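Same chain as my last thread, 292 residues:
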Amino acid sequence: MANFFGYYIKCAGKQDTIAVIFGRAVCGKDKTAFIQIVTRDNSYCENFDYEDSSVAKHGFEMHIGLNHVNEQGMTLNIDSEDLEVTAEVKFGKFKPIKYDAMGPFRFLPFMECRHMVVSMQHAIRGEISINGVTYTFGDGDVGYIEGDRGKSFPKKYFWSQANHNDISVSASCAIIPYLGIRFKGTICFIHVKGQEFRLATYLGASVKQFSESKLVIHQGRGNKKLSLEIEALDGKPTNARSLLAPTRGKMNRTIHESVHRTVRYKLTQGAKTVFNFTSDRAAFEYSDSVNT
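reply #2:
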């Protein structure tokens, strides 16, 4: 048996953004639980005994050692030789997506990776302290939570997420293997003033550009045509931090994520521009191990 499960918890403050990953991975008899943390300046990984972790069968809740996250908030308590972390962050009311992120793809067996979105946006309040540096979150600061389960991350993928005022965007595109073939798949979720837009392969979305710095997706026709453009504007990132990602249940692949990239997001519907904004606190990943 080979599988992984993980939650990605992003805390975006006025000055700093921190992402925390609660995860578990299994490859045969090799089992591990872990917490990874990404900041503007560094990344950290702490491993735990698998038996000292648990995931709720229903709802959003996960324990790893003395660390816990659920719909009410997140508590961190790590004290090891190289890493000392304490945190108490409270969450406001979650804003979930309308239905399962995978759509009809959730019924397909043998998918390499299955994606979920827990909350597009919610208020956050509290503190995270990492090796003596304290990050404080309060009025106007927001959180975002998603998750993944499966055997492996896609070999080639683009992912970006940002919150801007009352807008939340989460977009991804990947080369997906399935039953001996490979196809370019995308799922994007957008909340704007209480309205949800979704672009997805299972809704007929077409990927027009897919590179290390830009993603362009079209869906529909005429006045209902949606066009989403996401472009990193800061050239080659200097603040991308190393993370471990799963390959057949083993956390042995290195990827790189920035939680402070400068990224432009533009959505149009027909001839109307729904939004066009730039965030300097965008989360961003691009990985391509297909050609390496």
